[in-house]
Amino acid sequence: MTGAALLSLGPLALTGVAGIAAMAMAPVAPLRAIRGTTATLMAAALALVALRAGAAPAPAYALLADDALARLGAALALLAGLGILAFVRDEDGAREGPALVALATSGGVALAGATNGAALILGLEITTLAMVALTLMPRSAPAAEAGYKLFLMGGVSAATLLLGAAFAFAGSGSLALADWGGSGGLAAVGGALLLAGLAFKFSLAPFHMWVPDLFSGAPASASALAGALSKVATGVALLRLAEVAPGGAVWALGLGAAGAAAALLGNIVAIRQESLARMLGYSTIAHSGYLAMILAAGGPLAGEATLVYLAAYAPAVVAALCVASALGGVSRTELRGLVRRQPLAGFALGLALLSMVGLPPAVGFIGKVYLFSALAAAEAWALLAAAAVGAAVAFYYYLRFGIAALAAPEGEETAPAPALSVGARLTLAVAVALIVLPGLYPEPLLALAGAAAP
Amino acid sequence: MALIAQLLLPFFGGFAALLAARTGRDRERWVAIAAMAATLAALAAGVALGDDGRWLAFYRADWAPSFGIQVLLAMDGLTAAMLAISSGLGIISVFISWHVTHRSALFHAAICWTVAAANGVFLSFDLLIFAFFWELMIVPAFLLIALWGHGDREAAAIKFLVFNAVAGLGLLAAVFWMGATSDPVTFDAFALAETEYSETAQILLLLGFALAFMVKLPVPPFHAWLPDAHTQAPTAGSILLAGLLLKTGAYGLFRFPPMLFPDALMALAGWGMALGAFGVVYGGILACGQTDAKRLVAYTSVAHMSIVLMGVCGGVHFALIGAGVEMIAHAFSSSALFLLIGALQHRTGTRDLRELGGLQKTAPAFATSFALFFAAALAMPGTANFLGEALVITGMFQVNWVFAAIALVSLVVSVVYATRLIGGIAFGAPKPAVENAPDLHRYELWPIAILGLCALVFGLFPQLLIGWLWTAVEAALQPLIVVQP
Ranges for the NADH:quinone oxidoreductase/Mrp antiporter transmembrane domain (chain B) (predicted)? Predict the structure, then answer.
């Protein structure tokens, strides 16, 4: 193995080492020390990715690519992982949280570079299993329900994915994703099965049922793994697959339909939610739907649009869940006066919701620009209409929560100020910067996405 | 430079106000005033040093070259007038909000940001940046209503936001489509104006733009957000809504459809004029039935802004000049009325016309100001509003006398609501609520005096305003004349 190869695999290796180190420290060290070690190693991985941003793409290895797309995906996954690390808690004395987040992140980094069916499935399963374990850590009834659903449906989806990969392999004679684009019966069946499996991971309708339960029952860190980390990594993997569109027309049609259904259903059901976590759960379904529609429509802007949208959505969802984690399971009315009790949390939540709804100056507006432009450029009018309806509905429920966080409390202030750890403050500050700065000056983000788009 | 300053000064002024509030009492107010006064000064400098050609000032720079987005700012007389109104009303809003002490720092920041975003709308000719500011403007205005409003403020604020943001999607979809189908990708309005779109495409794009503009104006049936937003908004919010946000709708309608989609505009002009005529009558009649003074003025806004829609769709000289004059005149009269009603509510605790009356005896300057601005609102000759409406109606006679007749008849309705309001507030024996109302404070008197002066001077010397708007009117008219049979 050459030095170049080591550098290529460095981020993945460092993240994996972070997970193993955290696992080893869990029985003996305090949570602070574990979290610090894990964060340092993951930050080193992120620095390595950033340093190699301009480097020429490394030659393709059997399983993983090291190109601009993989690097951008890895950077986003690592950023999300670092953010999530800040609000992992020791549930019932168990301190495996950081280890699980690091493992999930390594799965995400692997997914971002996956050019092969085996790497794809490994990456997805590592992420999902870490998510299941993190969900089950509080040992409460809602967490158990969420974890059970996730595990059961995750198992079915893993089986579906494996079967899909098997069909695609049978059809093409190769496990490389780039070869899965063939037509014919085997490829079509393989494409459909792959799509069904990925739709589960990506929380697209009708495979979304686990998401709201996860968001309301699991620790916020597990929700953030699903909403930010897994979404970014799976999004990049979908982008690679969309290039070849396994199964041809089946792929585009299925992805478009699942995306439109998710965008409509997620947004419409979210209207009725009064719990912040559940609302975020339905909203993440909707955002997956938008992404799936971009990928299904294809067209000249699809790659850039997917990446810009992912980069716009991830910091918002991490910030919102970080606040939700500090507050515990809050309803909309309990949010009132948050900005008074804890200004940073209140403003960060308000800004995150502004970004999710796609209003300037948040980067979500740039994401929406690309969403609509990509669909218009691909002349996918039905999908554009679905996205517009979803976006129109969304204004109502996000802003209801946003204004509750910013408004003055009604009557006596009873709720105590939520405690924010240093890590959580740092996460919120970085997330706010990643929401506002590219919203006001998007060129660096657009250039990165443009270079990384396949 | 003067153009960039129009955006950056109020934008950073808002942040400065946020920070300044920590250093001492009332600092945020003076910082906000200073920021917007500096904006006005920069505007004056820009106009004084302006070029003679189509544009007084022009600025172009790359913003996000990866996606063909530019900062493309241009100012002609119309823009300059709107910018002056924007910063001027911002300053007035600060002065008449001296009683706002609850979260005052954020309040003044929101005023500055509203002004900054509105300035962006008035200046931008890169359609994506235009859409950016268009959406941005909603956010601070939403905060103003939701956090400092009266009564059921949050519901009103969300209604305001949902109506405007959803309508904004029409604009966004149209802009993104135009950008995404251009090759290389550009959102430059001047370049896109040269693009030939098919007839259907033009009509669809125009409808997308018009949806956003007509909700902001607002024209029935898109006006449902306005009475609630105005009623619940704080006085400063009402002033900015009526004087500034509504005008962005009028400005957008005036500027972009004639420039980008002249064929479609002329094809749909009859519908637009019909909708405008309906709005004039409908707004007037509903205004007559209100007992809440703010709601009454809100409905008169519907009527007056519908006249702007008629004027733009008329597509002839008189009508377009009238539309331009009307939107400027209405900015003076409606913001002054909301200022006065807000001051009255602050003194008496009510806006209900049945509980008010006799202000003439207890606060004569107050009552006289009301009378002056209601004379303006019902388009009494001598006010700028008269000039605007008379020009639009004259233009209508050239195009279609039916609409002109409807607009003329509606002027009668405006006499009904004006007398109702002025009678309900000023005349009769002083009601208990009014008895101890003090007269106008000097912080209220001088804004009223300035607004009144503007309404009268431009009404008595129309050429001042018309000359100023001439280049913008010519530019809007040129493509329409080519299209007209």
Answer: 125-410
- Quote the mean pLDDT of chain B: 90
Domain ranges of chain B: 1-264, 268-485
Percentage, residues of chain A above pLDDT 90:
61
Q: CB distance A406–B143 less than 8 Å?
A: yes
Task: Count CA within 13 A, CB hemisphere, residue A262.
Answer: 33
Domain boundaries, chain A: 266-454
Tell me the angle at which helices B317-348 and B442-460 cross, rounded to the nearest 10 degrees.
Answer: 160
B154 to A407: CB separation less than 8 angstroms, yes or no: yes
> Would you state the structure tokens that stand for residue A156, as one six-digit string?
């079915």
Helix (H, G, I), strand (E, B) or coil at B77: helix
- The closest alpha carbon to B350, from B238, B437, B478, belongs to B437
Neighbours of A90 (CB within 10 A): 17
Best mutation target, A403, A410, A445, A446, to test chain B (most B CBs within 10 A) = A403
CA A105 to chain centre: 11
pLDDT of B441 above 90: no
Contacts 24+ apart (CB under 8 A), B222-226: B222/B163, B222/B167, B223/B279, B223/B283, B223/B302, B224/B159, B224/B163, B225/B159, B225/B160, B225/B162, B225/B163, B225/B164, B226/B298, B226/B301, B226/B302
Residue of B nearest to A438 (CA): B64
pLDDT band of B54, cuts 50, 70, 90: confident
Helix (H, G, I), strand (E, B) or coil at A208: coil
Residue among A372, A384, A407 whose CB faces B146 most closely: A407
d(CA A10, CA A16): 10
In the structure, how many helices (H) and strands (E) does chain B have? 22, 2
pLDDT digits (tens, 9 = 90+) for A243-281: 887 777 888 899 999 999 999 999 999 999 999 999 999
pLDDT (tens digit, 9 = 90+) per residue, B344-366?
A: 888 888 888 888 888 888 888 88
Residue with the two structure tokens 């823009």: B79
pLDDT in tens, B114-141: 999 999 999 999 999 999 999 999 999 9
Q: Nearest by CB to B158, which of A372, A396, A442?
A: A396
Look-up of token digits 């997620």? A266
CB neighbourhood size of A97 (10 A): 27
B66, B147, B172 member nearest A446 (Cβ): B66
C-alpha closest to that of B190 among B124, B247, B249, B254 = B124
Q: Burial of B396 by CB count in 10 Å (0-12 exposed, 13-18 middle, 19+ buried)?
A: buried
Interface contacts (A, B; CB < 8 Å) = 88
Tell me how far apart the alpha carbons of residues A265 and A272 are, in angstroms, rounded to a whole number.
12
pLDDT of residue A413: 57
CB atoms within 10 A of CB A230: 26
Q: At CB < 8 Å, which residues of chain A contact B?
A: 301, 354, 357, 359-361, 365, 368-369, 372-374, 376-377, 384, 388, 391-392, 395-396, 399-400, 403, 406-408, 441-443, 446-447, 449-450
Average pLDDT over residues A218-247: 90
Q: Two tokens at B57?
A: 């000032």
